[in-house]
Design goal:
Layout lengths: L2 E3 L2 E6 L1 H7 L8 E3 L7 H7 L4 H12 L5 H11 L13 E5 L2 E5 L9 H5 L2 H12 L4 E7 L3 H10 L5 E8 L5 H8 L6 E7 L2 H12 L2 H9 L2 E4 L6 H20 L9 E6 L4 H11 L4 E8 L4 H8 L1 E3 L20 H8 L4 H14 L1 E3 L2 H8 L2 E5 L2 H15 L5 H17 L5 E5 L7 H9 L7 H12 L5 H5 L10 E3 L3 H8 L3
Parallel strand pairs: 5-15, 6-7, 6-9, 7-8, 8-16, 10-11, 10-15, 11-14
Antiparallel strand pairs: 1-2, 1-3, 4-5, 12-13
Helix pairs in contact: 1-6, 3-4, 3-11, 4-6, 11-12, 17-18, 17-19, 19-20
The structure holds pyridoxal-5'-phosphate (PLP).
The site of pyridoxal-5'-phosphate (PLP) has 17 residues, from helix 12.
């Protein structure tokens, strides 16, 4: 199988080239030229498999330049059971009736990013052996919280890689900061930036594209790469869990083979829901994909109207991983839905870069609406939904998942479409203890971070993930802070160059 670019459909690269390169040279995103098909027989066979076997079955079709041995090594390493707090890796839990939650946060950092970032380092090092002749890969990350920690955990002690993470000094939660500054591993470094997330992000981009720095790295047999969510190596692992959830529902006898299900996804950069779209295109019986947004509802407006407009107020919410105005992976959907029209994608993305907006044709948005629905949810509704689901069903939601559950409830009310549904749960409630505890108790919280974890546990009885509990006794390894102007020097210092 070959991959092409959303902005130039003449390009052909292998999966490993796409993964090492990250982004196509003219700025487009890599997409598969054709989509493999799974019939119901094949899906039925996957029902009796472990998550690791299901992952190999799906990934094999996309990573055709990997040998079976390489694929086995990657997948078994990534989803080793000791790294996950559930032996099912991503369990599907019934909450009530047709409402099921796909728990994607049992990995080492308690957020769904682990599902992809546990596998990416393996895919990248195997790919680099094929295409980048033994160079050490240096991963640079600018993070607003979840991605940085998940990338650190994924790349820690992975041979022939180094990872450097930059975060805004006052821009992450206390728990997220502690997760990063206590990071273990011989090939990792973390540094705070005096500035906000955008400052960190643009400084990282400048370093990536600085020819002098690149040349200096090349002399030491090193090269930069990126672990952010436009890399195909981060998207493809996410297709697996949609198949896995369908198989779980079959196993639990909630559906019969061939029955359609709906899927609801709390969305930011549009990666997670796009993986659901690929699963549907491959033949998984998904009827509607519901895109759930918080107050930053640029995607709701787009999917309802066909007009994308990022010129609007930015809200800082209690679901920070969804506080996003440019959803990069939407570009891939536009490419596929427009019949691989890369000149249209160029035109739209130029509009976004120059004016912050674009509008697609009525025909195209109607085509998209056959598969996608959308809704959004304000802060008060997030709190109410957490409280109500806990009081009525005894199920504790984090703030991101609560957005999706509320949008699901609205969707059922509006459409009457209440077939069996999977709602993605993207974080452990303990990662956002303050907001969740405030919602459950109705009282503003003033305790310190670990006392709130204990309090939330006392009030709800939900298990505290061991990796978050253990943070309390870990010592801080990284307390570097630098100005954004000095980031490239910091990179050299951290790499011992
Ligand atoms: C990253 C993230 C999201 C958004 O996922 P996308 O793939 O960017 O749409 C939602 N919830 C949590 C907790 C996240 O970390």
């Amino acid at each position: 199988m070959f991959y092409t670019s959303t902005r130039n459909n003449e390009i052909r690269v292998t999966a490993s080239q796409a993964i090492v390169q990250g982004i196509s040279e003219e700025g487009g995103l890599f997409v598969p030229c054709e989509i493999p098909h799974f019939d119901l027989d094949k899906i039925s066979q996957m029902t009796n498999m472990s998550y690791i076997q299901r992952a190999k079955t799906v990934l094999k079709e996309f990573l055709t330049d990997f040998t079976q041995d390489e694929l086995d090594y990657c997948v078994q390493g990534a989803y080793a059971s000791e790294k996950f707090s559930s032996e099912k890796i991503a369990p599907t839990v019934n909450v009530k009736g047709n409402k099921n939650i796909l728990e994607l946060w049992h990995g080492p950092t308690c957020a769904f990013k682990d599902m992809a970032l546990q596998l990416l380092p393996y895919l990248m090092t195997v790919s680099a052996k094929k295409t980048a002749d033994g160079k050490t890969i240096v991963i640079l990350v600018a993070t607003s919280g979840d991605t940085g920690k998940a990338a650190l955990e994924g790349f820690k002690n992975v041979k022939d890689t180094k990872i450097l993470v930059f975060y805004p000094v006052d821009g992450v939660s206390p728990m997220q900061k502690l997760q990063m500054t206590t990071q273990e591993g011989d090939n990792v470094a973390v540094c705070a930036i005096n500035g906000n997330f955008d400052d960190a992000q643009s400084a990282v981009k400048q370093i990536f594209t600085n020819d002098e720095i690149k040349a200096e790295l090349a002399q030491k047999n090193m090269m930069f790469s990126s672990a952010n969510s436009i890399n195909w190596g981060r998207l493809v692992p996410q297709i697996v869990y949609y198949f896995s959830a369908y198989c779980d529902l079959l196993e639990q006898k909630r559906i019969e083979l061939g029955d359609e299900i709906n899927v609801v996804v709390p969305t930011g950069n549009f990666g997670n829901i796009l993986a659901g779209y690929y699963a549907k295109k491959m033949g998984l019986p998904i009827k509607t994909l519901v895109c759930a947004s918080n107050s930053n509802n640029v995607l709701t407006d787009f999917l309802k109207s066909g007009k994308y407009d990022k010129n609007r107020k930015f809200y800082t919410t209690t679901s920070p991983s969804m506080d996003i105005l440019i959803s990069s992976n939407l570009e891939r959907l536009l490419y596929h839905m427009s019949g691989c029209d890369s000149s249209l994608v160029n035109e739209l993305m130029n509009g976004l870069a120059e004016k912050g907006e674009y509008e697609v044709s009525v025909k195209l948005i109607e085509e998209i609406q056959k598969t996608f629905d959308a809704g959004c949810c304000d802060e008060q509704s997030v709190n109410d939904t957490i409280k109500q689901n806990f009081d009525e069903n005894g199920y504790l939601l984090d703030t991101h998942t609560a957005v999706a559950v509320k949008v699901y409830e609205d969707y059922v009310k509006q459409t009457g479409d209440d077939i069996v549904t999977v709602i993605d749960s993207t974080a452990s409630p303990y990662k956002f203890s303050k907001s969740v505890l405030t919602a459950v108790t109705g009282k503003e919280q003033t305790l310190d971070e670990f006392d709130m974890v204990d309090e939330l546990n006392a009030v709800t009885g939900a298990d505290v993930p061991a990796s978050l509990k253990a943070l309390k006794n870990k010592s801080v390894r990284f307390n570097n802070v630098c100005d954004k102007e000095n980031m490239s020097e910091m990179v050299f210092k951290l790499l011992n160059l």
